[in-house]
């Protein structure tokens, strides 16, 4: 599939649509990099959640910019594993159905999905 002219840095819909839960070992401990503690909330047991992603109108605290126009992750190098895994193939034009669900929530057109 040829690359589609949409990149995650133009979209960001997933960051304003889904809850992001991750293991507490991905938090920064002050010596090792990771998700800043102030950007996470305790969920249950060893699970943390990115602030803002479980709100009625979800939006990750690390998302900067305007969804659908120009966005960036304020902690890109230290983002949690669900963020690293989601849409990993978008850079080569392979999109996930979940991406289109997030895009629809923001009135953005669907991208081609390779089944």
Describe it.
Helices cover 12% and strands 17% of the residues. The protein has 115 residues and is α+β, with helices and mostly antiparallel strands. The protein has helices at 81-85, 97-105, and strands at residues 21-23, 40-44, 47-50, 63-66, 70-73. It has one domain (13-105). The termini are close together. The protein contains two helices and five strands; from the N terminus they run βββββαα.
Number of domains: 1
Radius of gyration, Cα only, in angstroms?
14 Å
Report the mean per-residue pLDDT as an integer. 90
State the total count of DSSP E strands.
5
What is the helical fraction, as a range of percent?
10-25%
Order of strands in the sheet with most strands? 1-3-2
Model regions low in confidence, pLDDT < 50 over at least 5 residues: none
CA-based shape: globular
- Classify the secondary structure makeup into a structural class: alpha+beta
Main pleated-sheet profile: 3 strands, antiparallel
Percent strand:
15-25%
List key phrases describing it.
alpha+beta; globular; 115 residues; two-stranded antiparallel sheet
Task: Lay out the secondary structure.
Elements: E1 21-23, E2 40-44, E3 47-50, E4 63-66, E5 70-73, H1 81-85, H2 97-105
Antiparallel strand pairs: 1-3, 2-3, 4-5
């Amino acid at each position: 599939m040829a690359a589609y002219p949409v990149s995650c840095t133009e979209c960001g819909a997933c960051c304003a649509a889904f809850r992001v839960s991750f293991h507490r070992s991905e938090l920064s401990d002050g010596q090792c990099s990771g998700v800043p503690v102030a950007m996470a909330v305790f969920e249950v047991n060893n699970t943390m959640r990115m602030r803002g992603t479980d709100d009625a109108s979800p939006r990750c605290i690390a998302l900067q910019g305007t969804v659908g126009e120009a966005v960036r992750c304020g902690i890109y190098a230290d983002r949690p594993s669900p963020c690293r895994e989601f849409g990993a193939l978008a850079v080569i034009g392979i999109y996930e159905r979940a991406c289109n669900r997030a895009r629809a929530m923001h009135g953005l057109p669907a991208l081609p999905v390779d089944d």
